[in-house]
Amino acid sequence: VGRTVIDEKPKWKVLGGFKTSEYLFSYWSALPHICKSGKIIIVEGQGDVIRLWEAGIYNAVGIFGSELSEKQELLLQLTGAMSIITCFDNDEAGQKCRTSCDKKLHRLFNLRHVMPVGHDVGEMKPNQISSLQLNC
Question: Of the N and C termini of the chain, which has fewer Cβ atoms inside 10 Å?
């Protein structure tokens, strides 16, 4: 996966053959922290997860976009976590993703939605991220 430095769409480029709908970005790195806390923070992209790590939040995974697949949902269930906090972008795609996650996850997890300051978590500073209280 790579990111363009020019304002072109898509921002992130995935090499052929990699099926993003079958994975969660940073799943294996986040798993010990998810197991310890019992909570998962779900964000849209890789940059969002990296920014959360910079802010000291390690139980976050990215869904590689704005649609949670069935395989990704199964990966979330396999963690044993009881709670999910979503922090999707502050745009139409983020709203659609929040609504979709409500339908798919509300029976399986304690679900809470947090709105980022500005457009998305990837654009926030660490002190702004800590004000979101994602690990509460």
Answer: C
Distance CA(55)–CA(134), nearest Å, equals: 11
Q: Within the chain, which residues score under 70 in pLDDT?
A: 1-5, 8-14, 136
Q: Can you read off the two tokens belonging to residue 18?
A: 């990699």
- Which residue is listed with tokens 């996966």? 1
Average pLDDT along the chain: 89
- The SS3 of residue 60 is strand
Where helices occur in the chain by DSSP H, the ranges are 27-37, 46-54, 70-78, 92-105, 126-130
pTM of structure: 0.88
Q: How many CA atoms lie within 13 A of 8 on its CB side?
A: 7
Give residue-wise pLDDT tens across range 66-78.
Answer: 899 999 999 999 9
